[in-house]
Design a protein that fits this description.
28% strand; alpha+beta
Amino acid sequence: LLQKSYSSKNCFFIKENNSIVAFLAFKTKKNNFFNPSLTNFTDVYGLLGLIKALTFNIIDHKVKTEEIHIEAITVNSTFRGKGIGSNLIQHFFNYAKKNRFRIASLEVVDTNKKAFSLYDKIGFSINKRSSIKFLKWFFPFKFNYVLLMEKRLNR
């Protein structure tokens, strides 16, 4: 599904020895990183998967014109704590500023303390706290809130 549905224009990655060790995907008002068709989604995940996808679409963060939103960021566990995630985010900020975005945003669950600490350290602040109870059924980890964090970008 990912191979059929992603936009290489909306991601950055870091490779070492031909393997991706860190990855950041983003969306804007005009473009998403991941945009599967309903047919492709149903082919891969069946009817229950389609229902989940439609549910996520309803609660998906709606990006404003001047905003660029991080959809996903991950660093291979072997490479964590070495500044790779911070460097990837700095590259993202440079791209956002160059393309005249005024706000960078992301969402993080309240129990992901390490990620929250990193985002807070680099200038993101909580804009909205959502308690979406039914989301807990879809994820294999515990959380109480989804936090929308934003950072104003200086040009």
